[in-house]
Amino acid sequence: MTALERPVVPRRRRRRPSGWHLVLLPISILFAIPFVQMFMASVSPAAELIQFPPPFIPSRIDFGGFVGLFTTTDVLLWLSNTIIVSAASVTSHLILCSLAGYGFARLKFRGRTAGIFLIIATIMIPTQLLMIPTYILFARLGLVDGLGAAIVPWLASAFGIFLMRQFFLSLPAELEEAGRIDGANRWQTFWYVILPLARPALATLAIFTLLSSWNDLVWPLIAINNDQAFTLQLGLANFQSTRRTQWELLMAGNVVATLPLILFFLFAQKQFVATMSISGMKG
Amino acid sequence: MTTIREQRLPSVVRGVRTPRRRSRIRRLRDDLGAWLFVAPATILVLGLSIFPAGWAFVLSLQEWDGFSPAEFVGGENYVGLIGDEDFLAAIEHTGLYTVMFVPMSVLAGLFLAVALNRRIRFIGVYRTAIFVPFVASAAATGILSTYLFSPQYGLVNNLLRTVGLPTQGWLEDQNQAMFVIALMSLWGQAAFTTVIYLAALQDMPGELLEAAKLDGASPWQTFWRVVWPQLSPVTVFATIWQTIGAIQLFDLVYTTTRGGPLDATKTIVYYLWEKAFRSLDFGYGSAVAYVLFGMTLLITIAVVIYSRRRGMEAF
Q: Domains in chain A and their CATH numbers?
């Protein structure tokens, strides 16, 4: 027996492929289908998308959808609106939430406990409860129908403050003492000593804010009626009623709205996964 | 905390005026300096949550269309909700979605995490394929859903037709629309439950699994007797989080069916949105929002109590 088995050993050293491939491969294909279909439909000839029965794969590549999208709609304007909204939200989030997170974690002042308690309590309040009064408030402040309505709700968030506070709590206190001994004041210590160490937390916060503000639909939907101030998401949602049968155009719009995030995800997958595990809720 | 207590000491000592005043001024300056750090974000966050939440409660006691003077009606809006058949139907639709989506997303997360928690070839590709839909917005997912599940041109019916099965109405069928929405939500959100289960699996002490193996447990037994109980805090957390998200469903309904067909996918928040921003009934809409808030709290408390009783500490 042993003599017979011996020649087999070297071959067995190369390990048998895991049976889990049989599970993971079909599941991965299922998860990939919607995006694959999106890309395929965006470069399909229009006629093939409303042909019966539709072909599984387009016969040729046709950029008619993108041409129609860029020439007959305001998509470039919406894209620039979305970029403005996201850039403003991410910048403001990074600055304001790291300042507040640091203050609540490391500085001692009256009202600190009450402040952080109230902020954490607001995480429990559903957005839907705030929609109506916030809309009225924005209308009175003159923010309605402008980009302000899409930006203001994302300037800072309870989640962002909480996230940064947790991070700063984990840093050793000696860091600040070292800064103080070197003669730095609180701002200098924060800016030159603490903040450079906070890069991982800031990356998580930036991705969270980018995803939330880029993909946000509810605030623009209730507060923006002026199509010059539409964001991409709002424009896309409106396409569905106005361009219902122009699939190639809809899908081209979808690619414009989604591709930047997909590429960013592929580029910074680790940070995205870290963000997912703590944020959870989409939009 | 200690510095505050230390600084309070002089003020207790009677007759010592100067140090007391000096320390008070210094403390005030310290407090102000610290508040400069936290004030901008705190004012924004509280100003856009606590203040509107209080305002929403006042609104819920009024009848107001935003133009004519508001009229105080007390609890009338809430009483009206009890007999409102459309609202009860919205609760039913939301419940149906929740019952489909929450178990699917928790179980899918668990299964995918177990499947992805191994070092095999292409594991990175598999992870990417399963995680990348997380970046899809509700608007994008909505368009993809209507396209994939289109009765005439959609891929799903096309596949059914090819293998000779009867095609379905999907989003245009009132009995199937909610299922399609739940399925597409799952596509976009499975990454979340998967990632949190995966993190818990990777934190699990290896000795535990070794011990089970030494005791002669099969992989199946090890999973259900050793791993699964260890994961229960994650399960409780995921269930609460996904339930809260599910009863707030709005975006995907708006971007797929707009509440149809025949109101079959009109959820609580969709109803709220229609009442407030289509019929301009701000008072009634706010009452709906408060009922939703109450339901969120009740569900959270119920799950926490249930898990405490079962001895699963999650919080």
A: 68-279 (1.10.3720.10)
